[in-house]
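User: Let's play a game. I give you a shape written as C-alpha cells, and you guess the letters that built it. Ready? Here's round one.
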C-alpha cells in the first residue's frame, strides 16, 4: 500500500476530512494529471479512500460554504453565488521564500488575532514554505450592519486582511519588514 493510500485509509483522517468538507466545494488533485471535474463534494468517509485508490493525491476544500456545492457552475453572478453561499471561513495564506520567515510572520499574525481576542482559529503547515491560519465562519456574526455576513465575500476577507497587514506592519513586525515586503509574506483567498 502506498503512503497516500495508507494515509487516506485511516478512519480518523476520513472522519476529520468529512467534517471539514461539510457544505464545501471539493477540488481533487490527481498528482501530475491535475484536478478532477468541478463541482465536487464529499458525502461519505469511504469515498475518500475510493478516490485515493483512483489516483487522488490531495483534497482541497473551498473557504466558502454552500447550501449545495454541486449547484455551482462557471459564470455564475455574484447574486447567484450569494444565494447559494451560507458562509465563509477567513483563510490567511502565509508564504515566504524561507520557512523561518514564514514562521515569524505566522506568529505575528497570530498575535494580531489574539490582540482582538480571537481564540477560535487554526494553524496548519501548507506543505510548501508557509502556513494557513483559518478562522471558521462560526466566529463571525450572522449579520454585519444588517447585511448577511455570507454575502460579504470576497470583500470582507480582503478588508480584514488589509487591516491585519497594517496592524502587523505598524506594530508587530518592523524587523521582519526590513528584510521582506509584507505583500511577499501573505496572500488572502477570495
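Assistant: Ready! My guess for every position:
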Amino acid at each position: 500500500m502506498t503512503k497516500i493510500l495508507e494515509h487516506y485509509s485511516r478512519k480518523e483522517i476520513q472522519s476529520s476530512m468529512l467534517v471539514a468538507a461539510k457544505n464545501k466545494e471539493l477540488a481533487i488533485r490527481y498528482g501530475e494529471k491535475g484536478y478532477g471535474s468541478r463541482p465536487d463534494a464529499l458525502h461519505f468517509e469511504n469515498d475518500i479512500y475510493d478516490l485515493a485508490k483512483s489516483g487522488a493525491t490531495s483534497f482541497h476544500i473551498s473557504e466558502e460554504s454552500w447550501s449545495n456545492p454541486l449547484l455551482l457552475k462557471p459564470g455564475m453572478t455574484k447574486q447567484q453565488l450569494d444565494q447559494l453561499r451560507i458562509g465563509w471561513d477567513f483563510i490567511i495564506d502565509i508564504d515566504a521564500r524561507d520557512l523561518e520567515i514564514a514562521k515569524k510572520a505566522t506568529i505575528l499574525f497570530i498575535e494580531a488575532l489574539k490582540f482582538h481576542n480571537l481564540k477560535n482559529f487554526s494553524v496548519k503547515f501548507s506543505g510548501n514554505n508557509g502556513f494557513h491560519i483559518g478562522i471558521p465562519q462560526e466566529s463571525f456574526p450572522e449579520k454585519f450592519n444588517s447585511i448577511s455576513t455570507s454575502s460579504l465575500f470576497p470583500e470582507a476577507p480582503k478588508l480584514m486582511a488589509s487591516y491585519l497587514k497594517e496592524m502587523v506592519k505598524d506594530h508587530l513586525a518592523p524587523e521582519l519588514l526590513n528584510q521582506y515586503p509584507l505583500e511577499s509574506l501573505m496572500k488572502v483567498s477570495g
